[in-house]
Design brief:
The complex is a heterodimer.
Chain A: H1 3-27, H2 36-39, H3 42-65, H4 78-104, H5 108-132
Chain B: H1 3-31, H2 35-38, H3 42-65, H4 79-98, H5 104-129
Helix pairs in contact in B: 1-3, 1-4, 3-4, 4-5
The chains are: A mainly alpha, B mainly alpha.
Chain lengths: ~140, ~140
C-alpha cells in the first residue's frame, strides 16, 4: 500500500470516528444544554461522514488499486494526488469549523472562509478526476 | 479493466465532477448569504454524489474485480451489466433534471428515474450474482 494511500485511509478512519461521535453528540441535543453552534452542525457532520470517510477512503483505494498510468509513473502524477489530499482535508476541516459558526453568528470573514472551503473541496474533486481519468482503462 | 467497468467508472467520475460543483456552489452561496437562491440544487447534488458517483463506482469496480473465471463475455461485460449501466444513468439523469422542474412533469420524470434505477440495480445483481464465489486463488 503506497504511503499516500495510508494517509488517505488513516485520515478517513479518523473522520469515521469523529463523524459518528458528532452524530451521537447531535442526538443528545434534546437532553444536554449544548451550544447553539453544535446544534446546527448536522450538515457539517454529514459531510465529515460522506466526504471525510467515504469519499476519502475511495480516493485512497483508487490511487492504490486502479490500473497503472504508465511504466514511469505507475500511479500517475503524485503532485496532483498530494494536492487532492491536502485540499480535501483543509476544505473539510474549514467547513466543519466555520459552517456551524457562520450559521449562528454570520460575519463576512466567516462567509469568506466558507467560500474558501467550497473552492478547496471543489478543487480536490476536480484534481481527483484529472488524476484518476487516465488510469481508468483496459490493459 | 473490462469495457463496461471503464464506462461505469468514467461516468461516475463525471457525476462526481458535476456533483461537487453543485455542492461547492451551494456551500459558497451559504458563505455569501445567498443560500436560498441555490437551495433547489440539493436533490441533484445528493443524487449525483450518492447514486451517480458512489453507487456507480461500486458497480463498475465490482464488474472489474469480482472473480470471472469461466464467465462468458466477462472481458467486455455481460448484457445485464450494460443494461445496468444504461438504466442507472438514465435514472440519474431523470432525477437530476427534475431538480430544475416543477409540477406533474417533474413528478412523472422522478418516478421514471427511480424505476430505471431499480431496474439498473436488478440488472446489476443478475450480472454479478454468479460471480460471487471462490475464485480458486484466494486462500480462504
Amino acid at each position: 500500500m503506497p504511503p499516500l494511500t495510508r494517509w488517505f485511509v488513516k485520515t478517513a478512519l479518523v473522520y469515521l470516528v469523529v463523524a459518528l461521535l458528532g452524530g451521537a453528540v447531535l442526538a443528545s441535543g434534546p437532553f444536554l444544554h449544548l451550544p447553539a453552534a453544535i446544534l446546527v452542525a448536522a450538515p457539517a457532520q454529514i459531510h465529515l461522514f460522506v466526504v471525510g470517510w467515504l469519499t476519502q477512503l475511495i480516493f485512497g483505494i483508487a490511487y492504490w488499486m486502479f490500473p497503472s498510468h504508465s511504466r514511469e509513473l505507475p500511479r500517475g502524477r503524485n503532485d496532483i494526488a498530494i494536492a487532492v489530499y491536502v485540499l480535501l482535508n483543509a476544505g473539510l476541516v474549514l467547513r466543519a469549523v466555520v459552517e456551524p459558526w457562520q450559521t449562528v453568528d454570520p460575519r463576512p470573514i466567516l462567509g469568506a472562509l466558507l467560500v474558501a472551503s467550497a473552492v478547496a473541496q471543489w478543487l480536490a474533486g476536480v484534481g481527483f478526476v484529472i488524476h484518476a481519468w487516465p488510469r481508468v482503462r483496459g490493459r | 479493466m473490462p469495457r463496461v467497468s471503464i464506462w461505469f467508472v468514467r461516468t461516475s467520475l463525471l457525476a462526481l465532477l458535476v456533483g461537487v460543483t453543485l455542492g461547492a456552489v451551494m456551500l459558497g452561496a451559504k458563505g455569501l448569504g445567498a443560500a436560498p437562491a441555490v437551495w433547489f440544487l440539493l436533490p441533484a447534488h445528493l443524487e449525483l454524489v450518492l447514486v451517480g458517483w458512489m453507487l456507480q463506482l461500486a458497480m463498475g469496480v465490482a464488474q472489474w474485480i469480482l472473480p470471472r473465471f469461466g464467465a462468458r463475455g466477462a472481458a467486455r461485460g455481460s448484457a445485464a451489466a450494460w443494461i445496468a449501466y444504461v438504466a442507472l444513468n438514465a435514472g440519474v439523469l431523470c432525477v437530476v433534471v427534475t431538480a430544475t422542474l416543477s409540477g406533474p412533469l417533474a413528478g412523472a420524470l422522478q418516478w421514471m428515474g427511480r424505476l430505471a434505477e431499480v431496474g439498473a440495480v436488478a440488472a446489476f445483481v443478475v450480472s454479478v450474482w454468479s460471480r460471487v464465489r471462490a475464485s480458486g486463488i484466494s486462500a480462504m
